[in-house]
Design goal:
Number of helices: 13
Number of strands: 4
Largest sheet: 4 strands, mixed
Low-confidence stretches: 1-7
Strand order of the largest sheet: 3-2-1-4
Shape: elongated
Mean pLDDT: 78
CATH class of the largest domain: Alpha Beta
Strand content: 5-15%
Structural class: mainly alpha
Order of helices and strands: HHHHHHHHHHEEEHEHH
CATH architecture of the largest domain: 3-Layer(aba) Sandwich
Distance between the termini: 50 Å
Length: 382
């Protein structure tokens, strides 16, 4: 029981496959605080660009209110259209960089921009009141609440510190005029904004570390999970052993076939399909026992056997059914199947009589129905 309990405890770090599955389901590392920081940081750059370009922007905007009263209707349509394009271009100039910043932030966190259609599927647990209550009183909800309180306290404290430091200079300056006062307010605002950004950067860093820890904890696996995943990926040990044995058997048979080709010149006859299968048989007249298979093969191996037989003047007899029956029931170096004795005897008798100068018609070779195969090794009457 103890070992079973240990195997079910999620103590192991997630595998790459588990992380990939989580991303497909929409479970990615994310940090709201980092998004807040990067968005405001980008906003600061947009603000500086807007301030430095304020003269040009105001001049453009001013032009929309200058028109000839004599052509009021036409001018109104034109200026409205231009104003629309102007506002749209400003929106794009701000929105596109902000979108890029958001996408870059997420890709930096999770390693890529993730699109997970599975996350949009309907799940009953999302509208289950009990599940919702459980999420509200969870440890994650408590941490989020404490984090929010700490963030508000820090931001209010920094704001108070910056303003209290600058307020005396703003109120007691003896040579301050309106322009100078506005410049000091602006400088104070920029200082406050930068101070808040530094606080948000620290909060974002801590939040990223916490979210990463939580993300890994949620994806942790038990030892049994890892074993099951390994079986799904690599296959069970029993299946792998069986496949390995089949591969070794196939390789050994192929090696035996290649080696047996050297014996083809001494064959009595070669039975072919006529091109896909070739079986070289050996039989000594008067010898005890049945004919033996010297070599056999299919495809390229069959073509090699036929080529050698033609070169060495070994008789070749075409009989597709007999060739396939010999191939799928025989082994190199073994005698032919006993049910094929009659068919092979008829072939050898024909070859011997032809060799003695007789003029004969090619006989029809009959193969038992239960030994009739197609080219994939399946019986016709199965």
């Amino acid at each position: 029981m103890a070992s079973e309990s240990d195997s079910q405890e999620k103590t192991e770090d997630p595998t790459p496959k588990r992380i990939e599955q989580a991303m497909e389901e929409g479970q990615v590392l994310s940090s709201k605080e980092l998004f807040v920081f990067t968005t405001l940081f980008a906003g600061l750059f947009v603000y500086f660009i807007a301030v430095n370009s304020s003269g040009f922007l105001l001049g453009q905007w001013k032009g929309f209110f200058q028109f000839d009263l004599g052509e009021f209707n036409g001018e109104l349509v034109r200026l409205s259209y231009e104003a629309f394009l102007y506002i749209l271009s400003l929106g794009l100039a701000i929105g596109v960089p902000m979108t890029i910043v958001v996408l870059f932030t997420q890709s930096t966190l999770s390693g890529r921009i993730n699109f997970a259609p599975k996350a949009m599927n309907f799940k009953g647990s999302r509208i289950n009141p009990l599940q919702g209550l459980k999420r509200m009183v969870s440890m994650k909800a408590l941490v989020e609440m404490l984090k929010s309180i700490a963030k508000v306290v820090l931001l209010i404290g920094v704001t108070y510190l910056v303003i209290s430091t600058a307020i005396s200079a703003l109120l007691t300056s003896s040579d301050a005029n309106l322009l100078k006062g506005l410049e000091r307010v602006h400088a104070t605002f920029i200082g406050l904004f930068i101070a808040l950004l530094l606080v948000l950067a620290a909060i974002a860093l801590l939040d990223v570390l916490w979210q990463r820890h939580q993300h890994i904890q949620q994806l942790r696996m038990s030892r049994q999970d890892i074993k099951d995943e390994h079986k799904q990926t690599e296959g069970s040990p029993e299946v792998k052993a069986k496949i390995r044995r089949m591969q070794m058997t196939t390789a050994a048979r192929a090696a035996q076939q290649r080696k047996a080709i050297d014996d083809v010149p001494s064959a009595t006859a070669v039975i072919t399909n006529p091109t896909h299968f070739a079986i070289a048989l050996k039989y000594d007249v008067g010898a005890r026992g049945a004919p033996t298979i010297l070599a056999m093969g299919r495809g390229k191996m069959a073509a090699d056997i036929i080529e050698i037989a033609q070169t060495e003047s070994v008789p070749i007899f075409q009989s597709p059914l007999l060739a396939r029956a010999l191939f799928f029931t025989g082994e190199i170096g073994a005698e032919i199947h006993e049910e094929l004795f009659s068919a092979v005897a008829a072939v050898l008798a024909f070859i011997f009589r032809i060799a003695n100068g007789e003029n004969l018609e090619v006989p029809d070779i009959e193969v038992p129905e239960d030994l009739q195969f197609n080219e994939t090794g399946e019986r016709y009457n199965a």
